[in-house]
Amino acid sequence: MNFFLKALGAAAGIQRVVPGEEITINVDLILAHDGTAAKILAAWPEGEQVAQPAKVVFTLDHAMPAPTIASRQLHLQLRAYARRQGINLFERCEGVLHQVVAEYFHPRAGMIIAGADGHVTTAGAFSVIAFSLAPAELVPVLLTGQLRLVVPETVIVTIKGGLPPGVSPRDLGLELLRRLGGGALKNKALLLQGEGVWQLSPSGRMSVCNLIGEMGCMTGMIIPPEEQVADSDLTIDASTLKPLVACPPAPTKIQPVHEVAGLTVTQVLVGGCGSGRLEDFEELAAAMNGRPVHGDVNLLLVPASRAVLQEMEARGLSRSLLQQGAVILPPGCGPCPGQHAGLLAPGDRVLAATVRNTPGRMGSPEAEIYLASPRTAGLAAVAGAIVAG
To answer: How far apart are CA 37 and CA 345, in angstroms?
Structure first.
């Protein structure tokens, strides 16, 4: 058995599992946020209690601080629920859910996560197995601490070599999405291995795994180096990769940046769970190279956590980016879910280092969303257009 199957077997308390088998596994961490929690509360059986409160994590990150009265009412309801149930609630802009997991809950190889969010596979950077569930599906997990599932088949991808200068971990993630995002992974688990991912920093691995949620698979992860398998279904040479961009109307419509170079942009976004770590902002700043933000562009930065923001300030990065014309928003999701803080209007075109670009994702369905790396975002912010550089 490969590492993935062994970890599922351990979580189920059995020695061997095979694809197609139905099993019940113990869950180590259960996640939700203010974007999904309203549906959880609506489905919650009156008078019932969470089975293992210490393993439950809710964050206020999609609409925090509250942009509407309804948002604030939900936040108050979640606070009351969290206090009743004794669960962990992060309610003061500590960060976006997936960064909170990385910083506060010590993700480890083989850990099992279930979450009411589409991008919980970000934790796959730490060899965690994370399953994305609908809010109503999460309720029985909260009540029992267990998840019932059919063991998926695995697709193993080996990434050899290293990224060349000017190519980012997000470009690797986009390359994986380009090759595997057309339905090939449906009901399967994506396992990544090879020096091309193992030599990335934790932030870089999170950037890659963050995009697994857009590939249509059941789950995905980077397997530990000591668990490498000899055979793989696909090999990618990272040294041959180029900067990529996902074009509207879907994150799977991916082209080399040079093919869309020259398109003007009105907004640039870096941050959130896709690109809100210190390494991402350093990459953005390096691409901007001290130059001011173009006069027709809003450059919005959303630190993935309070700790990231504090480090940006300690290094003088916040100050320099602000002086160049950037706007720094509170830690969290920012404009990405389309609930507040930087929404798009008809005629807007944004280049974002985030995770989804379906029409209406960040506001008006008539706006255009392009997805790329923080480096490509930095070049566009100063040029006022997408640049191949």
So the answer is: 27
Note the pTM of the prediction, 2 decimals: 0.96
| Single-letter residue type at 140 | P
Determine the 3-state secondary structure of 256 from DSSP: strand
Strands 22-26 and 146-150: antiparallel
**What is the structure's pLDDT at 288?**
98
Residue pLDDT, tens place only, 144-170: 999 999 999 999 999 999 999 999 999
Domains of the chain and any CATH numbers: 1-15+23-148 (3.30.499.10), 152-241 (3.40.1060.10), 244-383 (3.30.499.10)
Of 135, 134, 119, the C-alpha closest to 40 is 135
d(CA 248, CA 314) in angstroms, rounded, equals 37
Mind listing the pLDDT tens digit for each residue in 260-290? 999 999 999 999 999 999 999 999 999 999 9
Find out whether 98 and 207 touch, Cβ atoms under 8 Å. Answer: no
pLDDT in tens, 222-242: 999 999 999 999 999 999 999
Q: Is the backbone peptide bond immediately before 135 cis, with ω within 30 degrees of 0?
A: no
